[in-house]
Design a protein that fits this description.
Order of helices and strands: HHEHEHEEE
Largest sheet: 5 strands, mixed
Distance between the termini: 36 Å
CATH architecture: 2-Layer Sandwich
Helix content: 25-40%
Strand order of the largest sheet: 1-2-4-3-5
Structural class: alpha+beta
CATH class: Alpha Beta
Low-confidence stretches: none
Shape: globular
Number of helices: 4
Number of domains: 1
Strand content: 15-25%
Length: 142
C-alpha cells in the first residue's frame, strides 16, 4: 500500500528509508506500516520537539549487517510494512520520549540503548508479540 506522505506531519519518506542506500522504500520494494507513521506523528506532537530517526525501514541485507534479529520489525517481511523505528535521543529528551511512549500504550516493543555506534536511542515497534499478539515487551541493549 502506498503511503500518502503529505498526510504525515513530522516524518518524511527519506528519513524512514533504509540507510544502506538501496532505496527499497522509494523503489516500492518495501513499505512503512501506516499505523507506525500515525503513532510516530502523535508521539512527536506530544513531545513537542523533533525526533531524529536513526533507523526506520531496513532491507534484509542491511538488517543482517546491522546485527538485527532475523524477524526484525524494521523489515517489511510479512507485507505489513516496517513496524519499527529507532529514535536518536539525548539524556533529557530520552526520558520525555520514553514517558510519552509509555503513556500512549500502543507500542508493543520498547528498547533502550544508552550506548551504541549510532549513539543513544529508543526503539519503538508495533510488532505483535505472544500468542494473542497483544503482549508488550521492554528491554535494554547491552
Amino acid at each position: 500500500m502506498a503511503i500518502n506522505w503529505e498526510a504525515i506531519k513530522f516524518f518524511s519518506q527519506n528519513e524512514m528509508e533504509c540507510k544502506c542506500g538501496c532505496s527499497s522504500l522509494a523503489n516500492g520494494e518495501a513499505t512503512i506500516n501506516l499505523e507506525l507513521l500515525t503513532k510516530l506523528d502523535e508521539l512527536r506532537d506530544r513531545c513537542g520537539f523533533a525526533l531524529p530517526v536513526n533507523s526506520g525501514l531496513r532491507c534484509i541485507q542491511n538488517n543482517l549487517d546491522s546485527g538485527g534479529h532475523p524477524s526484525s520489525a524494521h523489515c517489511d517481511i510479512n507485507g505489513e510494512g516496517c513496524q519499527a523505528v529507532d529514535l536518536g535521543v539525548d539524556r533529557a529528551r530520552g526520558r520525555i520520549v520514553l514517558q510519552q511512549a509509555l503513556e500512549m500504550d500502543c507500542w508493543n516493543g520498547i528498547g533502550i540503548s544508552q550506548r551504541s555506534k549510532s549513539g543513544r536511542f529508543i526503539h519503538l515497534d508495533l510488532k505483535p508479540r505472544g500468542a494473542s499478539g497483544t503482549d508488550k515487551a521492554l528491554w535494554s541493549y547491552a
